[in-house]
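User: I'm writing a tutorial on reading structure tokens. Could you give me a worked example: one chain, its sequence, then its tokens, then a sentence or two explaining what the tokens reveal?
Assistant: Sure. Here is the example chain.
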Amino acid sequence: MSNPEIRDPILAKARANEIPVKQVFEVDASRQTTRVSANVAGFLGTTRIALNDNLLKQCTLPEIREVMAHEMGHYVLNHGAKLITYFGIFILIGFALARTLFETAVKRWGEKWGVHSIADPAGLPLLVLILSTFIFVLTPFLNTVVRVTEREADAFGINTAREPDGTAKVALKLGAYRKLDPTPLEEFIFFDHPSGRARIRMAMDWKAANLPVGESTTAETRSSFP
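And here are its predicted structure tokens:
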């Protein structure tokens, strides 16, 4: 990216947070999707900051700064390694549970089904059923783990960028493909990110606590979320 108005503030925040990058990359995503996206990822000299062209086309500078600060939060808070660890534990538990349930089922119904052991190809449908059920039951908990990291990145982003109105406006734009105001049960089961309403409320609470009283919330935010 060569536009200094966008690039330089991003690199300044990266330096302030000890993220070892010297460039910002633009990804051509608009040929495949209209969603806004960005990421900060990598290790051992491969760290890269990238944002897609939809973010540049659809969002204002304060919104872009907020999104990039959020993504830096994932990097600084080491969310990638944490999620790999959590998911690795879940996978190990899933394999152990699958083996135990499979062997229990074979002992009871193996002769009837013609399945002799877990290495028997005839047992593949049973193994798939057990693993699919485990993943189905685990989905709300996996989503909760990811949602917690997203909330942490939201907090890091708003404290770093100090753009509460940008946070609120981006949340509204994400509402084009993500329900803004789900019920608590919907959010627990299906959402791997905080709801739009929760993010807007967080942004406005932060603004009330940290910025001068004279700076009111945006008209869009007021009219959409009283």
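What the tokens reveal: Strands lie at 24-27, 38-41, 48-52. Residues 119 and 170 are 50 Å apart (CA to CA).
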